[in-house]
């Protein structure tokens, strides 16, 4: 009885298309990165955390796309690989080799940094309250551990993507990543919505912060949606889930860069107004402004609001939020 033919997925073509998309997204990153650095370095306030973070992310993106191009060259230009029937497909099917393992490690690291940066932004927006970020940080630690565990399991000879511990750990990491991105993005947007409600009665021009809210949701939703697609494909045991990591890796870098550039240049959803939240502003009461808010609108380019966090704080109590038409994204 003849043995059944082994069906080999067209991984060569799939990776060729995926890496083409990765290089396209990397091109966007090459444009956004210097613009983002320029925005952060030309402002009065130093932004060392953001500059260091986006620099590391861009470096990881560069190394990853370099490894992807090296894999393409090896698969389609090596005489040893091409001499074997379905050589490129078999080459990419060997997921436990050093090159795909290194790419997986870089991807897991970039995703972890991107999530931590998003959590840090939530920490800033929520007036540096540690209690707000405790749960996200715990979930993030579990997510990073799950992703690195999956990468370690990937190094085993003849590792299988589906039906084993590797898939279980991978799905755990992706599900946590989706949860963190979605929850933290909504927490940031919710905080801005709350500020808009408090500020609007005190501001004659009623500048809306909805543009910043939409920008946060749009930018944060890009990577969450892409990760959700990978998660669904992995559950359905489609090889495209692992192939899709290549372009998604660049999205992990593009998302924070895009958010920084859009808000820094005032390219927001439907409005050019942006918002900044800075803790420690002294609370004051004004009979002229409704709701007990003090409005300083002397400088058209830098309007400030003093918002009480409590109904009747003690005189001089530092319990307010200063909102400036700069940008909380680069605070």
From TrEMBL:
Keywords: Membrane, Transmembrane, Transmembrane helix. The chain crosses the membrane at residues 23-41, 48-72, 105-123, 130-154, 174-193, 213-233. The keyword Transmembrane applies. It comes from the Eukaryota. It comes from Exidia glandulosa HHB12029. This is Fungal pheromone STE3G-protein-coupled receptor.
């Amino acid at each position: 009885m003849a043995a059944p033919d082994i069906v080999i997925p067209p991984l060569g073509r799939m990776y060729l298309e995926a890496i083409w998309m990765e290089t396209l997204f990397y091109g966007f990153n090459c444009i956004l990165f210097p613009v983002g650095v320029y925005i952060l370095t030309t402002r009065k306030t130093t932004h060392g955390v953001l500059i260091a973070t986006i620099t590391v992310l861009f470096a990881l993106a560069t190394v990853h796309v370099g490894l992807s191009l090296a894999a393409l060259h090896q698969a389609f230009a090596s005489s040893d690989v091409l001499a074997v029937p379905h050589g490129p497909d078999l080459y990419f099917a060997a997921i436990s080799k050093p090159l795909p393992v290194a790419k997986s490690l870089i991807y897991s690291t970039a995703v972890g940094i991107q999530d931590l940066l998003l959590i840090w932004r939530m920490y800033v927006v929520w007036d540096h309250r540690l209690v707000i970020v405790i749960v996200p940080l715990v979930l993030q630690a579990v997510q990073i551990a799950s992703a690195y565990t999956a990468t370690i399991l990937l190094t085993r000879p003849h590792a299988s993507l589906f039906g084993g511990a590797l898939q279980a750990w991978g799905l755990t990491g992706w599900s946590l990543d989706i949860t963190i991105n979605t929850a933290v993005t909504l927490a940031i947007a919710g905080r801005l919505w709350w500020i808009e409600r408090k500020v609007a009665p005190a501001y004659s021009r009623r500048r809306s912060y909805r543009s910043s809210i939409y920008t946060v949701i749009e930018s944060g939703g890009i990577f969450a949606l892409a990760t959700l697609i990978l998660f669904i494909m992995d559950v359905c045991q489609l090889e495209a889930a692992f192939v899709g990591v290549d372009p998604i890796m660049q999205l992990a870098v593009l998302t924070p860069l895009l958010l920084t550039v859009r808000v820094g240049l005032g390219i927001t959803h439907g409005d050019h107004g942006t918002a900044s939240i800075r803790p420690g502003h002294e609370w004051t009461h004004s009979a002229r402004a409704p709701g007990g808010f003090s409005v300083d609108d002397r400088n058209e380019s830098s309007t400030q609001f003093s918002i009480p966090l409590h109904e009747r704080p003690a005189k001089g109590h530092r319990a307010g939020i200063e909102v400036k038409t700069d940008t909380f994204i680069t605070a």
